């Protein structure tokens, strides 16, 4: 029974990783194609649907960690996925005013390259039991460049959206109401920006430690 469940787990995770890989490959293809043909102003329109699908699918990774399908700690997975979903839905989808900015192109290209490498790496590991050494190196080295470009784009787009968030009052809840509750999306977004300050260096150091551990282990093997 245990071996049967192990097979089911591997088949499911293999399919999950390669399906999401295909989604991010679409995002990269449409982003680069549009950037080349019509410029950065139209990148968001070209990638919107596959970006939303691929990024929202990452919610399943939180569940994977919670139920023990993968060993990744939820404490590391949750803030990464949470910030991505906030950008995807709370900023890019909600505020068309920032959709034509050049930072959208740098954001989706940074994200898509990162995820293409990551999902194909785990796709190989689940399907074959291993990944090529060059793929291991890419998995634990590409973030050295792509994480700073991605984070810079994220922070820049959130900052650019702030005036539109304030004037639109979108997602705000005003009192009085039956729940006796108020919420201001503008101030919540400022709080998110404030979390980026200590959060980004912490996550970068965490990934550096992961890189050192993974590459050291591969050398011993």
UniProtKB/TrEMBL annotation:
GO cellular component: endoplasmic reticulum membrane
Pathway in which the depicted protein is active: Lipid metabolism; fatty acid biosynthesis
Annotated membrane topology: Multi-pass membrane protein
Protein's cellular compartments: Endoplasmic reticulum membrane; Membrane
TM annotation in the entry: 12-32, 101-122, 143-165, 185-204
GO MF terms held by the record: very-long-chain (3R)-3-hydroxyacyl-CoA dehydratase activity
Keyword Transport (UniProt): no
EC id: 4.2.1.134
Pfam families recorded: PTPLA
EC main group: lyase
Catalysed transformations (reactions): a very-long-chain (3R)-3-hydroxyacyl-CoA = a very-long-chain (2E)-enoyl-CoA + H2O
Record bears the keyword Lipid biosynthesis: yes
Protein purpose: Catalyzes the third of the four reactions of the long-chain fatty acids elongation cycle. This endoplasmic reticulum-bound enzymatic process, allows the addition of two carbons to the chain of long- and very long-chain fatty acids/VLCFAs per cycle. This enzyme catalyzes the dehydration of the 3-hydroxyacyl-CoA intermediate into trans-2,3-enoyl-CoA, within each cycle of fatty acid elongation. Thereby, it participates to the production of VLCFAs of different chain lengths that are involved in multiple biological processes as precursors of membrane lipids and lipid mediators.
Protein name as it appears in the record: Very-long-chain (3R)-3-hydroxyacyl-CoA dehydratase
Organism annotation: Raphanus sativus
Gene name per UniProt: LOC108817701
